Amino acid sequence: MTEGIERWKGKTALVTGASSGIGLAIVRALARIGVRLVLTARRAERLEALKSELEAHGVEVLAVSADLRRTDAIDSLFRTVRNQWGGIDVLINNAGLGWRELLETVDFTHLQSMMDVNIRAATICIREALKDMQGKQDAAIINISSLAGHRVPPGIGGTFYSASKHALKAIADGLRQELVAENSPIKLGTISPGMVETEFQTVAAPGGNYAGYEYPPLRAEDVADAVLYMLSAPRNVQIADILMRPLSQPH
Fold first, then answer.
1. What's the helix, strand, coil split of the chain in %, to 5?
2. Is 161 a catalytic residue?
3. 41, 89, 90, 244: which could form a disulfide with 19 (CB 3.0–4.6 Å)?
4. How far apart are CA 18 and CA 138, in angstroms?
5. What is the enclosing helix (H) or strand (E) of 14?
6. What is the CATH classification number for the domain harbouring 102?
7. Using one digit for the tens of pLDDT, what is the confidence trace for 66-75?
8. Residue 134 falls within a domain, yes or no?
9. pLDDT at residue number 251
10. Residues near 249 by Cβ (< 8 Å), separated by ≥ 6?
């Protein structure tokens, strides 16, 4: 372990969307460096299985099933963490939803769910995390976004997902100004991967797979490594943005 990452040992990290894909890889990476973990996702059975796996290796784990589309569920999540562990030191805002939708036929049920998770839930989690982080020398918020937050993906159907990720970038940029104005030591970073091999693609485009791609996608573990890189930076260094894509991804 490097000196930079060592200082997070024993700290408490909340990972949203922890039960699969990028969130799961981040959880396992943080467990390896001795972080105490709060796991949340909608699928309770997966969370409990992951909790058992981690505890078998001596990791302290709190698993809270929650639908982040509901404000009361987020409030309950943070209340539970504060009651049991006194709050968090690290927030990994990873939960996200995405569907391919055309403007002329957009399903507003899908659109509302996507905005509720990708923007509103992420914002509420940040707000509550900031309350826990006041007065701490080491605290960090890392948003897992997408290259779609920097450009609209080629092809049709990605407009609204991209819009939600552009909004998350704007929120992070604005919050960073607030933190600097307060001379806050809280670190704020955003990681924006390109194509990653996870279940997410199946949800965004039912029946989709990677067979049609001419390049191998990123692994979830690649994104988890980027999280550790952000956390390992010295206290005086702010790694604000990481854009990453598969070597052969052309866009």
1. 45, 15, 40
2. yes
3. 41
4. 22
5. strand 12-16
6. 3.40.50.720
7. 999 999 999 9
8. yes
9. 84
10. 194, 195, 215, 217
216 contacts 164 by C-beta, under 8 angstroms: no
Residue 205 has pLDDT above 80, yes or no: no
pLDDT at 202 over 60: no
Residue 249 · residue 154 · CB < 8 Å: no
Q: Do 150 and 251 meet the contact criterion of CB atoms below 8 Å apart? A: no
Instruction: Indicate whether 251 belongs to any domain.
Output: no
CA 107 – CA 224 distance, rounded (Å) = 32
In a domain, 154, yes or no: yes
Marked catalytic residue, from 161, 210, 215, 229: 161
Band (110; pLDDT cuts 50, 70, 90): confident
Tokens in use for 22? 């990028």
Supply 3's token pair: 């000196």
In a domain, 249, yes or no: no
Distance of CA 115 to the CA centre of its chain: 15
CA dist 75 and 64 (Å) reads: 12
Q: Where are the beta strands (DSSP E) in 125-231?
A: 140-144, 187-193
Q: Tokens 């957009």 — which residue?
A: 106
Tokens representing 51 are: 């909790």
> Cα separation of 101 and 212, whole Å?
20
With 0-12 CB in 10 A as exposed, 13-18 as middle and 19+ as buried, what is 24?
Answer: buried
Number of domains in the chain: 1
Residue 208 pLDDT > 60, yes or no?
no
Full domain range(s) for residue 209: 3-244
Output phi, psi for 25, to 5 deg: -65, -40
Whether 60 contacts 36, CB under 8 Å? yes
